[in-house]
Structure formats: structure tokens, C-alpha cells
Design a protein that fits this description.
95 residues; 2 domains; 18% strand; elongated
Length: 95
């Protein structure tokens, strides 16, 4: 299954009123296969995120600290403004 096929299936499942088990049974897909593809593609995203770095160069002193808190628990405190482009990359790293 390609990543695009899996994403399409997830969207279809979310828009249906079926449970995951019902949805997969109708399509003849075992639940362990669904979780295999889910883990595979989420690990792929995590691996890419782990290997990407964003270069920051501060040029504007801030009057206060900029604090970014990510869903995975990472907290980033900046005393210097990294520039708008870098700040956007920090907020949306996958774009």
C-alpha cells in the first residue's frame, strides 16, 4: 500500500460512521495490516523530522522570550528573534 493510498483510506474512514473494525472488515483488510501501515508511515515522518535541522541566526533582540512548545514535549526558548522565515519553519517544519 502506498502512503497516498493509506492517507486516502484514513480520510475515508474518518468521514464514515463506521468503526475501524467495521471499515476494515468490509474492505477485507486485517486490523494488524492497518496498524502495520500506520506505524510504517508515521515512523517515516518521525525519521525525517529527526534528521532535519533548521539553521537559526538571530538579529533582533527581543523584549521577552519566545517559547515554542511542541506536541512531543520539546520546548524551545529563544532570546533572539530568528527571523520570520526561520520562525515559520520552526512552527511548521514539514512544509
Amino acid at each position: 500500500m502506498t502512503k497516498q493510498e493509506f492517507e486516502s483510506m484514513k480520510i475515508e474512514l474518518e468521514s464514515s460512521s463506521q468503526t475501524l473494525k467495521e471499515y476494515l472488515a468490509i474492505r477485507g483488510l486485517a486490523i494488524h495490516r492497518y496498524y502495520y501501515w500506520k506505524r510504517k508511515y508515521s515512523d517515516e515522518v518521525q525519521h525525517k523530522a529527526d534528521q532535519s535541522f533548521i539553521e537559526l541566526s538571530g538579529d533582533h533582540e527581543l523584549g521577552s522570550l519566545v517559547r515554542l512548545e511542541y506536541p512531543n514535549g520539546v520546548v524551545l526558548n529563544l532570546k533572539v528573534h530568528p527571523g520570520n522565515k526561520s520562525l515559520l519553519e520552526l512552527i511548521n517544519p514539514m512544509q
